[in-house]
């Protein structure tokens, strides 16, 4: 299987590129299997069907298992007209790559859609933000495996919460890192993880083989913005950083009060 020209699981393309190559290769292999079976069963490939690991002649008891067919294909190449390999390959090139404005490249195969909502509470004394509930609705086209998709969404959200509220690389004045271990570099655990509600829309892509869209990056990207917007709404201040700390919020509130006094 060759998901060319830009293979790999990065850029939300596995369910679009690799699965398309797998599907096309499987279709080629199926045609080869039916071709071999048609010779062995002395019938047209159009009169055959595959069920439960066995190839049957439609409307007949005549059949051959895939195991028996593989043995004959590899050991009896005279009778099967030199069909000696049950192997197929396919090079998949996504149709919308390198399209659009001249000089620009479309690096994502498809684009998923998501909406995230964070309900955040701010402690009036410490200014510590706490996420009470988090809601995410995703449209990644046709869902191929719901359990994996749900895991990606929850995992991406928790990763985004960590980057926004906990994780931070800190150096001293000499450039020495101060957060070199998990004692100082904080990560959200199950204790800090809020209630996460997940729902799905399925709008199949018109371009991918299975109607699927990218999924990997969608759950992480909106998290910082959702949390920042909730904090802005609660405190009526402007958040201009992707990492939010209690100290930052205290300083922002202090500066905001000073501006009000000056203007007043």
Automatic annotation (TrEMBL):
Domain of life: Archaea
Keywords, sorted A to Z: Molybdenum
Protein name, per record: Xanthine dehydrogenase family protein molybdopterin-binding subunit
InterPro entries per UniProt: Ald_Oxase/xanthine_DH-like, AldOxase/xan_DH_MoCoBD2, AldOxase/xan_DH_Mopterin-bd_sf
Domain Aldehyde oxidase/xanthine dehydrogenase second molybdopterin binding: start-end pairs: 7-194
Ranges annotated as spanning the membrane: none
SUPFAM superfamilies: Molybdenum cofactor-binding domain (SSF56003)
Pfam families associated with the record: MoCoBD_2 (PF20256)
């Amino acid at each position: 299987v060759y998901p060319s020209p830009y293979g790999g699981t990065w850029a939300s393309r596995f369910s679009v590129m690799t699965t398309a190559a797998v599907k096309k290769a499987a279709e080629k292999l199926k045609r080869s299997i039916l071709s071999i079976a048609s010779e062995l069963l002395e019938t047209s490939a159009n009169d055959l069907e595959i069920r439960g690991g066995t190839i049957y002649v439609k409307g007949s008891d005549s059949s051959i298992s895939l195991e028996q067919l593989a043995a004959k294909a590899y050991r009896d190449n005279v009778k099967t007209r030199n069909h000696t390999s049950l192997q197929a390959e396919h090079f998949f090139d996504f149709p919308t790559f390198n399209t659009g404005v001249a000089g620009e490249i479309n690096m994502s195969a498809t684009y998923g859609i998501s909406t995230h909502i964070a309900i955040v509470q701010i402690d009036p004394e410490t200014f510590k933000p706490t996420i009470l509930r988090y809601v995410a609705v995703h449209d990644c086209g046709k869902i191929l495996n719901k359990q994996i998709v749900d895991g990606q969404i929850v995992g991406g959200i928790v990763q985004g919460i960590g980057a926004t509220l906990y994780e931070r690389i800190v150096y001293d004045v000499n450039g020495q890192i101060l957060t070199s271990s998990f004692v100082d570099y904080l990560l959200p655990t199950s204790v800090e993880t809020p209630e996460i509600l997940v729902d799905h829309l399925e709008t199949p892509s018109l371009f991918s083989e299975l109607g699927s869209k990218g999924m990997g990056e969608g759950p992480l990207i909106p998290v910082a913005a959702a949390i920042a917007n909730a904090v802005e709404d609660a405190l009526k201040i402007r958040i201009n950083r992707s990492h939010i700390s209690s100290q930052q919020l205290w300083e922002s509130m202090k500066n905001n009060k000073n501006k009000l006094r000056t203007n007043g």
